[in-house]
Structure to design on (208 residues):
């Protein structure tokens, strides 16, 4: 049994959707922020950065980093067919885009939504946000070009990286504009979001 420490519409949504797609047994523990905007102090013993997601494994150990969870869970459940094997020619592409979204798009999303956290100077926030949006737009363009006809990142079959990408794309500063600009990204998002188990996880997370 996995325990997923989560918050609605946070980075835990993709992990929750993947756990469901894998048919894994899991429990969700929502870590909500208090009125002062911080997580309960007791949660810092589980994730010292106070972030979600955190995954507690069957042996009671703790895993942080959403992309690592996506890779780990999809590998652990090969019957779900959501990860190319280590020797597959598609493995490099799969890992490339998983890390691209984790280190590029996810971090730019955080700079856009929480610009004040990314400088010691309050006056920097507007510029940090503007640059994050610019970086994201460049990263969407690069991704759309590589996605080509898709419909998924690996071609015809959906994998864990599509679930991760769909969650992060849904946080874009202007989703209708992103979808209008890149029809292939819209198609990928819609194909992922239409899967019944993912739709259920998205709905619990109040995602579009
Ligand atoms: N690199 C981490 C980033 C996790 C992260 O920053 N999560 C956000 C929510 S999406 C968070 O919990 N931030 C702390 C907060 O908002 O209090 C990961 O991929 O898991």
């Amino acid at each position: 049994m996995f325990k997923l420490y989560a918050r609605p519409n946070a980075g835990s949504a993709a992990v929750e959707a993947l756990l469901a797609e894998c048919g894994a047994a899991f429990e969700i523990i929502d870590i909500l922020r208090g009125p002062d905007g911080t997580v309960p102090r007791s949660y810092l013993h589980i994730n010292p950065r106070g972030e979600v997601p955190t995954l507690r494994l069957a042996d009671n150990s703790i895993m942080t980093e959403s992309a690592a969870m996506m890779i780990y869970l999809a590998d652990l459940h090969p019957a779900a067919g959501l990860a190319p094997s280590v020797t597959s020619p598609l493995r490099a592409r799969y890992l490339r885009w998983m890390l691209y979204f984790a280190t590029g798009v996810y971090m730019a999303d955080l700079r856009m939504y929480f610009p004040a956290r990314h400088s010691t100077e309050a006056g920097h926030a507007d510029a940090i946000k503007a640059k994050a949006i610019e970086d994201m737009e460049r990263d969407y363009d690069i991704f759309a070009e590589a996605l080509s006809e898709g419909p998924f990142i690996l071609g015809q079959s959906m994998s864990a990286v599509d679930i991760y990408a769909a969650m992060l794309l849904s946080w874009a500063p202007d989703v209708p504009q992103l979808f209008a600009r890149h029809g292939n990204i819209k198609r990928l998002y819609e194909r992922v979001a239409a899967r019944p188990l993912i739709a259920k996880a998205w709905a619990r997370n109040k995602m579009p």
Observations:
- The pocket of glutathione is lined by residues 10-11, 39, 50-53, 64-67, 102, 106, 110 (CB under 6 Å).
- The radius of gyration is 17 Å.
